[in-house]
From TrEMBL, chain A:
<dbReference type="GO" id="GO:0008289">
    <property type="term" value="F:lipid binding"/>
</dbReference>
<keyword id="KW-0445">Lipid transport</keyword>
<feature type="compositionally biased region" description="Pro residues">
    <location>
        <begin position="469"/>
        <end position="480"/>
    </location>
</feature>
<dbReference type="GO" id="GO:0032865">
    <property type="term" value="C:ERMES complex"/>
</dbReference>
<feature type="compositionally biased region" description="Pro residues">
    <location>
        <begin position="596"/>
        <end position="605"/>
    </location>
</feature>
<keyword id="KW-0496">Mitochondrion</keyword>
<dbReference type="InterPro" id="IPR027536">
    <property type="entry name" value="MDM34"/>
</dbReference>
<feature type="domain" description="SMP-LTD">
    <location>
        <begin position="1"/>
        <end position="195"/>
    </location>
</feature>
<dbReference type="Pfam" id="PF26545">
    <property type="entry name" value="Mdm34_N"/>
</dbReference>
Automatic annotation (TrEMBL), chain B:
<dbReference type="GO" id="GO:0070096">
    <property type="term" value="P:mitochondrial outer membrane translocase complex assembly"/>
</dbReference>
<dbReference type="GO" id="GO:0045040">
    <property type="term" value="P:protein insertion into mitochondrial outer membrane"/>
</dbReference>
<keyword id="KW-0472">Membrane</keyword>
<dbReference type="GO" id="GO:0001401">
    <property type="term" value="C:SAM complex"/>
</dbReference>
<comment type="subunit">
    <text>Component of the ER-mitochondria encounter structure (ERMES) or MDM complex, composed of MMM1, MDM10, MDM12 and MDM34. Associates with the mitochondrial outer membrane sorting assembly machinery SAM(core) complex.</text>
</comment>
<dbReference type="GO" id="GO:1990456">
    <property type="term" value="P:mitochondrion-endoplasmic reticulum membrane tethering"/>
</dbReference>
<keyword id="KW-0496">Mitochondrion</keyword>
<dbReference type="GO" id="GO:0015914">
    <property type="term" value="P:phospholipid transport"/>
</dbReference>
<protein>
    <recommendedName>
        <fullName>Mitochondrial distribution and morphology protein 10</fullName>
    </recommendedName>
</protein>
């Protein structure tokens, strides 16, 4: 796959610059100006230069004809420049007196005489470096958000370069303003510009943005057709509590009538978000909401309470224990997925396989890939434990890079199949429901025992080659990938528990863009192991919300469940067949080269 | 209009023989009073009283959309017998206007201030304490004023407000006035600003002139007719490493002058390149006209402000349409020394070069002092009145 970013056509459009200038001018004059600036700031020249920024794709969360979402690492050191014109007060005593109270003013006679000087500031030699989240949707335009403060340095040259005090002051003030611009105004500008750019439904879109400046997260992901239901999904997710409440709160407000949230609840939500911002340990309890942390613990406790489902859930538990102790959010994701994925009951075999089982059919290919690596590289140790407990992020992440597409396709299929009208699933009930179903199914398929495990694994291999597009031997695991991801999520480990659940949204200006931030929330949660899983969840919010919260109340739900049950049964049959076949195969192979049995097998023997 | 507390403070200066005008900071006080007057906004009520000669209280209430107010107290160690209530006060004392500068006098000798009682010195330095609290804004103003010596005065003012950087500022000002020259040293905590101001009066030296008693040898009126003063100021902010300089000159006629009283000032800021020239003339007994021209040699920016001040007196015949400033006919020069208590009101008007007009009518209605003002922007045809306000003051 290749991306082609065109830099020059963007700048070739003659109207582009005038539009951008206008928007920039408006943005620069919006925030209160420091007293030294006594007139409006005018953008007189704007040139994006010829050197495009270096973009490094870190993650692509969503890809289709009409939408795109990805995380980039951007480095820019090009020749863009920007010239501003304004008037400044050149007498520092005057600016000082304008802010000082008159009662204690020294009341200079003429030393504070004003001298306004037209000032031309040229900003050049931008050095930008940051993580950019780009969301594009034909319906909603382009949203570009900086995860961090991208401004590394810039050169401010002005008419006052000869006066060091004013020069320093200007440099400082401009950097401050620019940081603000990059993180708050620029996303808004780009969004508006893109809306105008694509023209279509600009009016409606702009009115939309007026009403709710951020498009819905699920709406964005699942396309316009689902927009009507998105709020309900949101409701479901909100009730499930896994999703970060703050962003949900905002999207909530947009689609539902605002009066559905009482002022009390709003206050609580505000306190919750504040608690993350301030690292306060106090988190208000919100009724009807399940915190991700709780969900995790309940998942953990589940295996003990329902031994029949041990194989299924256990994996998710161990998984959560090892890989993401510091990121509990992932656990909920994994576990919820294990419940929601239609083929969740498929792999009740051994510990490691359950990993694949939890993650559904796509995971099969994953495990295969893992195993392959293990086969080639290592000959000892329990693969199970290796895979389960100390999976290096690099491996999984490299895999997911390769599988992204296919999974997307699958997910899209899933959407197509599963989309039928689904109403809000009331919480908690469904979990039991789904779980029950799961429990019903899983023991049937899990003869348990590690022999079978190995067998199934190979079977999976074989099966996947036939059914699913063959495991790409291609995915050239880029060595940087893990590192980059480490770069992205370095602080997560240091964050306290709660804040790690809702990572980083705090730093972003939620007021404007939370709706569009929300998609990114998941990918960042799943740097390594679960990006595909999360992409599933995002591709298929219905499935997700259903699976998590689940409501058995509606007819649609039941129909869907029936369908799923049928599907599961069918797959179970297939799986069984395959397993048997695989057992035979394995036996044969074992007989053939008994010298080096795979380690796991060896162990179990 | 002067607030009551400002009026009391002025009375304190008068009681302690402190010449406010002999300071570089007040070099262009006339032009400021005529051209930079504040027009009231909204409705303002002030009720004040000098409950004892040493103690004054004042309550203010302002309504400009939201109601806010202030409570202020003042204590003076010197009994202020010269404070009058709003029904009796002379309007020229209660209103900023053209400054008729007095002849500078020789300061008291320190020995004059000594009071001995039974072999023990009992005199004390006069002190004024003042505090004002703005209620919803939670701003506190405080002033400490002390006459350290016949030639020296210390003024410490402070503002406390949580919104200010560091929660507030303090300004300490030490003033020295020798008659012939005066100097001021100030320090502000805001940006650690230090400043020095000086004013020198050319010509007549009251210290040397003393031996010639004015009653014995009549002074040449042409020599005393006017006074030329020059001064300079210098500020330096220690924290922001920036400063300011200006120098200024003033020529003003003295009461002994026989012609029309006039005041001319020229201030120059050499760093900024700013020149400001002001000319005020008292045309007749009740009319003052003033013009001020600003010019900056670096930016070529200029500004011209014209203003006038019309004093309306009780009907004494001759000036019927006195309220209308344009057709004001001076009733001729009457003999000096006439009491100003026949003044019933003052109209002030100014116009800037971009047709910004300020109008202010200050006067007395029964026992109340009032001022009605408006700012009019002629360039905005649709909504010319920028601000309109009325201020009512009652002092007892």
């Amino acid at each position: 796959m290749a991306f082609n970013f065109n830099w020059s056509p963007l700048t070739a459009d003659p109207e582009f610059y005038s539009r951008a200038r206008d928007l920039l001018t408006a943005a620069l004059n919006k925030s209160p100006k420091p007293p030294i600036i006594v007139a409006d700031i005018l953008v007189t020249e704007l040139n994006l230069g010829t050197t495009p920024p270096d973009l490094e794709i870190l993650e692509i969360g969503d890809l289709a004809d009409d939408r795109f979402r990805g995380i980039f690492k951007m480095e820019y050191s090009g020749d863009a420049y920007l010239t501003l014109q304004t008037k400044v007060q050149a007498n520092p005593l005057n600016t000082y007196l304008s802010t000082a109270p008159s009662f204690t003013s020294p009341q200079p006679l003429a030393a504070s005489a004003p001298l306004t000087i037209p000032l031309q500031i040229t900003l050049s030699n931008f050095r930008l470096s940051g993580f950019v989240i780009l969301v594009f949707s034909k319906a909603k335009g382009v949203t570009l958000v900086f995860r961090n403060d991208p401004l590394e340095s810039l050169v401010v040259s002005s008419t006052f370069d000869s006066i060091p005090f004013i020069k320093d002051y200007l440099q400082k003030e401009i950097e401050k303003q620019l940081r603000n611009l990059f993180q708050e105004e620029l996303p808004a500008i780009i969004h508006r510009l893109s809306l105008r750019w694509w023209g279509q439904d600009y009016d409606s879109a702009s009115s939309n943005t007026l009403r709710s400046p951020m498009p819905q997260n699920p709406t964005l992901n699942s396309g316009p057709s689902l927009s009507a239901k998105s709020s309900f999904e949101n409701l479901g997710e909100q009730a499930e509590g896994g999703g970060s409440p703050q962003q949900q709160t905002f999207s909530f407000n947009n689609d539902l009538e605002s009066d559905t949230l009482s002022s009390k609840s709003l206050l609580r939500l505000a306190t919750l978000t504040d608690s993350q911002r301030t690292l306060s340990l106090f988190t208000p309890t919100i009724r009807e909401a399940i915190y991700r942390a709780w969900a995790t613990t309940s998942e953990r406790s589940d295996p003990t309470s329902t031994p029949s489902s041990t194989s299924g859930t256990h994996s998710s538990t161990t998984y959560s224990m090892d890989g993401n102790g510091a990121r509990p959010g992932l656990v909920a994701m994994a576990s919820s997925l294990s419940i929601s994925s239609p083929s969740g009951g498929l792999g009740p075999n051994g510990r490691p396989v359950t990993r694949s089982s939890t993650l559904g059919k796509k995971k099969k290919t994953r495990v295969v890939n893992l195993r392959r690596k293990k086969d080639t590289s290592t000959s000892d140790g329990d693969t199970n434990s290796v895979a389960g407990s100390s999976v290096p992020e690099s491996i999984t992440s490299s895999m997911e890079v390769g599988y992204e597409d296919k999974e997307n396709v699958e997910a899209n299929e899933a959407i197509n199949t599963n989309i039928p009208e689904i109403k809000i699933p009331p919480p908690s009930l469904a979990i039991n429901d789904r779980r029950g179903e799961y429990v019903d199914v899983s023991p049937l398929r899990s003869p348990t025992g590690r022999d079978t495990f190995l067998a199934t694994r190979t079977v999976h291999h074989a099966g996947s080659e036939t059914k699913v597009p063959p495991t790409p031997s291609t995915p050239p695991p880029p060595q940087q990938t893990p590192q980059q991801q480490h770069i992205i999520y370095p602080s997560e480990k240091g964050m306290p528990f709660h804040s790690s659940e809702y990572p980083r949204e705090n730093s972003t200006p939620a007021s404007l863009f939370s709706g569009q931030y929300s998609p990114h929330y998941q990918p960042q949660l799943s740097p390594g192991h679960h990006s595909s899983a999360s992409s599933v969840s995002m591709e298929n919010p219905f499935l997700e919300s259903r699976g998590r919260t689940g409501s058995s109340s509606s007819i649609a739900e039941k129909a869907w469940m029936m369908k799923m049950a049928g599907e599961m049964a069918r797959r179970w049959g297939e799986e069984r067949l395959r397993r048997e076949k695989a057992e035979e195969l394995l036996d044969e192979r074992r007989r053939r080269d008994g010298s080096s049995p795979p380690p796991a097998y060896h162990h179990s023997q | 209009m002067l607030g009551f507390m400002d009026y009391v403070q002025k009375s304190f200066y008068r009681a302690t023989k402190w010449d406010e005008d002999n300071s570089y900071a007040n070099l262009n006080a006339t032009a400021r009073a005529l051209l930079d007057f504040q027009t009231p906004k909204g409705l303002k009520l002030n009720i004040s009283s000098l409950s004892s000669p040493n103690f004054a209280t004042s309550y203010g209430l302002a309504s400009l959309g939201v109601v806010d107010g202030s409570v202020s107290y003042l204590y003076s160690s010197r009994a202020l017998d010269n404070v009058r209530n709003s029904g009796d006060v002379e309007l020229k004392d209660a209103i900023f206007g053209y400054r008729d500068l007095k002849e500078i006098t020789k300061p008291d000798a320190p020995r004059d201030w000594e009071i001995w009682q039974g072999g023990v010195r009992v005199d004390r330095r006069d002190t004024l304490l003042y505090g004002r609290m703005y209620l919803p804004a939670s701003t506190l103003e405080a002033l400490y004023l002390r006459r350290l010596a016949p030639t020296r005065q210390l003024k410490i003012s402070a503002v406390s407000n949580s919104r200010l950087p560091n929660g507030g500022t303090i300004l300490a000002l030490l003033q020295q006035d020798n008659g012939k020259f005066s100097s001021e040293y100030l320090y502000s905590t805001d940006v650690a600003l230090i400043g020095i101001r000086g004013l020198y009066n050319f010509g007549f030296d009251p210290r040397k002139a003393l031996p010639h008693n004015t009653s014995n040898i009549p002074v040449d009126s042409r020599k005393i007719a006017g006074r030329f003063s020059a001064g300079a100021e210098l500020y330096w902010g220690l924290l922001n490493k920036s400063g300011g300089v200006s120098t200024g000159f003033r020529y003003t006629t003295l009461p002994s002058n026989t012609g029309s009283p006039l005041t001319m000032t020229l201030t120059i800021n050499p760093i900024i390149g700013h020149f400001q020239a002001a000319y005020a003339i008292k045309a007749g007994k009740g009319a003052v006209f003033c013009s001020r021209y600003d010019f900056n040699i670096y930016s070529y920016e200029s500004d011209l402000v014209l203003g006038c001040e019309i004093w309306r007196r009780k009907q004494q015949g001759g000036n019927a349409k006195s309220e209308d400033g344009e057709v004001w006919q001076p009733s001729g020069f009457t003999t000096g020394g006439e009491r100003g208590d026949d003044v019933t009101g003052v109209l002030k008007a100014r116009i800037t070069q971009n047709f910004n007009i300020g109008l202010l009518w200050e006067g007395r209605f029964k026992q109340l002092l009032f001022s009605i003002g408006s700012n009019i922007d002629l360039k905005r045809r649709d909504q010319p009145f920028k601000t309109v306000g009325i201020e009512v003051q009652y002092n007892s």
